[in-house]
Amino acid sequence: GRRPANPAFWWVSAEGEEVKWSFAELGSLSRKAANVLSEACALQRGDRAVAVLPRVPEWWLLNVACVRAGIVFIPGTSQLTAKDISYRLQASKAKCIITSDTLAPALESVLPSSQFLKSKLIVGRGSRDGWLNFKELL
Hints:
Blueprint: E1 9-12, E2 18-21, H1 23-40, E3 48-52, H2 57-69, E4 72-76, H3 82-92, E5 96-100, H4 104-107, E6 119-123, E7 132-133, H5 134-137
Parallel strand pairs: 3-4, 3-5, 5-6, 6-7
Antiparallel strand pairs: 1-2
């Protein structure tokens, strides 16, 4: 008989929630995510996107999507201060910031000072004014 394929991605939260993606699912989802970045966020090859996310499945998905689309993925931890984020946005000339619905309020204070930022993408169940919702666009 045939054995089921090993998952390409297997994530388990602290609460025991599991996300498993096969290689085919990861390929399909990363193509869709690359389209979100290219179309909804208007990013082009060589543009930079700063991600301030906890290690949720979307972190890896967006990382693969950036590779697929030729976008430079700049990871940041949720422990960065407003000063750290402001510096990273300015130094990298990032055109997009990606964060979670819970971290977005803390980031909003530094975003107006970033002259290069064009789009803001939120990952999570919630939504905010002025932010694109990744799950809805996916």
